[in-house]
Design goal:
disordered N terminus, 5 helices, six-stranded antiparallel beta sheet
Length: 337
């Protein structure tokens, strides 16, 4: 393990700095830590109030770097399959085929859609014969594209979507590599979680006594190096279940350490995972906090264990509760064993 840690530069151990996230009109947009960006459509507030359904969500992603291209993705709510056209303000832009509740376009097709969006008002998905089956407002889409131009350092270059200029593509910064973090493969046998151990963890957790009660047995998961991960219940609501993570070593529990705190970390710094899940096969610990039951807003984090603490390898966020279940990625890292 010491040899593995030695291979990583000190920069890889720095606290993760998530990319920016924002919203403009009826679009949310974010970039991750290596400037891969994505924007997604939101239900306009006037439509949300009357309970209407747009029929699909529309997203645009762009890779970083001088040659970074666009990807246009449609996720339908069912009932749409087969040949369709994408239209802006009634004008047919491209044609495609919806399968498995979605469609992704890249290259020239995606470029044509993005170019038309900047000055458009309404984006629709239509049957090939013309009938509309889904729609999105384009209010704010130009500002979201400009946000991506700025974050990817392509404003003023020929590669910009909105903030175009005369600078060559070579003026855009090259693609940055993902940071690498060490990851220990789960191994060994989990420690037995006894009533005495649970009592000690409850006293350390800061949870109210009644919040720490659970009708299900509390068990542990071996995470390697003779250590056991235990998720101690710490309250539940209609659609969120909270736990405080402990690492047990030689029978002694300690609150787990994180390089980036989970979304519901307590005021005193105690990490609080929501709807936590441990994937023993991949060695990944997930937290998924829904801001409301529909799941159209919230945040999520995924961590790996490096032998001393849990390190963030992915984070997503959606701050607008307006129909999008496409939470935007703001951090990524590569786990290495």
């Amino acid at each position: 393990m010491i040899g593995l840690l030695f291979l990583f530069a000190a920069a890889d151990f720095a606290t993760p700095r998530a990319g920016p996230i924002n919203s403009f009109g009826d679009w949310a947009v974010a970039c991750d830590n290596v400037r891969v960006c994505e924007m997604t459509s939101l239900i306009p507030e006037n439509e949300e109030s009357d309970g209407s359904d747009s029929g699909a969500s529309f997203s645009i992603a762009r890779a970083a770097g001088p040659s970074g291209g666009f990807f246009f993705e449609i996720s339908t709510n069912g009932g749409v399959a087969g040949p369709v056209s994408v239209r802006i303000d009634g004008n047919r832009i491209v044609e495609g085929n919806v399968a498995n509740h979605g469609m992704t376009l890249a290259g020239e097709a995606a470029d044509r859609i993005v170019a038309a969006m900047a000055n458009g008002k309404r984006l629709t998905l239509n049957w090939k014969a013309g009938k509309e089956v889904a729609h999105a407002s384009l209010t704010g889409s130009a500002a979201a594209l400009r946000f991506i131009d700025a974050e990817q350092r392509r404003a003023g270059t020929v590669t910009a979507a909105v903030a175009k200029g005369t600078k060559p593509a070579s003026a855009v910064p090259p693609v940055a590599p993902l940071p690498k973090v060490p990851s220990v493969a789960p191994s060994g046998a989990a420690a037995k979680v006894t009533p005495a151990l649970i009592k000690t963890m409850r006293s350390l957790s800061g949870c109210e006594t009644e919040d720490g009660q659970s009708s299900d047995p509390i068990t542990g998961n071996a995470i390697g190096g003779g250590k056991t991960l235990v998720l101690l219940p710490c309250g539940a609501g209609a659609y969120n279940f909270s736990t405080v993570p402990f690492v047990v070593t030689a029978g002694k529990p300690a609150i787990a350490r994180f390089d980036s705190p989970p979304g519901w970390t307590m005021a005193e710094g105690t990490p609080n995972l929501v709807n936590a899940d441990w994937d023993a096969k991949l060695g990944r610990l997930g937290s998924y906090e829904k801001a409301r039951g529909l799941g159209d807003c919230g945040s999520s984090e995924t961590y790996v264990w490096d032998g001393m603490m849990f390190r963030l390898i992915e984070a997503t966020q959606m701050g607008e509760c307006r129909g999008s279940i496409n939470w935007l990625t703001i951090w990524r890292a590569t786990p290495v064993r």
